[in-house]
Every structure is written in C-alpha cells, then in structure tokens.
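I hope you will forgive my troubling you with a question about protein structure. I am sending you one protein, given as its amino acid sequence and as whole-number tokens for its backbone shapes. Thank you for your consideration; the sequence and its tokens are set out here:
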Amino acid sequence: MFKWFHSFEALVENQTGKNIKMLRTNNGIEYESNKFNEFCREAYIKRETIVSYTLEKNGVVERKKQTIMESTHPMIHDQGTPKFLLGEAINTVVYVQNRSPHKAFNFKTPEEFFTSKKPDVSHFRSFGCPVYFHVPKETRNKSEASRKKTVFVRYNENSKAYRICVPGQREV
C-alpha cells in the first residue's frame, strides 16, 4: 500500500502543485506499517482512521462506492457482458464520472477541478459497443479478415486508445 500511496502523492503534487494534507483510512493493517506512518509524519499528512466495521463513519466514500456499483451493474447486465469484465466496467464508470459536470464543483468536472483543464470527451463510447480494429497484414494469413470485431470495455488513461474484449474469449 505504501508504494501505491507514494506514487499517488507524487502524482497529486505534480499535477496540482498542492500537497495532500489529510488521509482518512480504515484501520486496515495495510496502512499501519512503520514506513507508511513515518512517510506521513515527514510529509505533514494528518492521519485519520475510522473504526473497523463502521462504514457509516465514512459516509462520503461509502456513498460514492454505492453510486459506482449502481452504475456498473446495468452496464454488465444490459449489454449481456460477461461478469469477468466487472473490473473494467467499474474503471469505465469512474473514468466517465471524473469527466462529467458535478454540482459540488459548481458544475465543473472533477477532472477540471483537479487539473484546471476542461477534459475532452469526444472519444466517449458506450460500454459494450462494437469496436473494429485493423489486423496488420504481417499478423494474418491471406484467408483471414483484415479487421476483427470486438467490444469496448474501458478507456486508456494515458492515450485515446480503448481496451477491448474479444467476444467469446476471456481476453482484454
């Protein structure tokens, strides 16, 4: 957990020029290493923990998780998408929500609020929609088609590329 938080903290500082001031976690052991605690002390990050098994104490996070899952389940069921793609659907929901206007941010998107740049959403697609990709001549024989039909399952965070799934295969 420390490695992931350290990377996240660096990302926040690089993109916003601001420091993380407080971290609220459950009492999970993944947050209690000496290395993690020392890092937070040195970075002046205030630690706040909630009592184990009292999810209502962290209502904002629990409500957000519920909203994500309420959006994810119809995507899986309405498209007849295999359940192994649940993680991809969750990531897609979060990606779209971060680029959608929100009242709490004065109708700016969370992405815009965080980076001060309005996000481009021209690449948005419906989860499970058909996607065709070109199969290079070098990787197919003469009798194979030059394109392959797949379905869209997720956006790529680092480019305008998509993550796709080949129907009938457990491959993304």
About this structure: The first helix runs from residue 2 to 16.
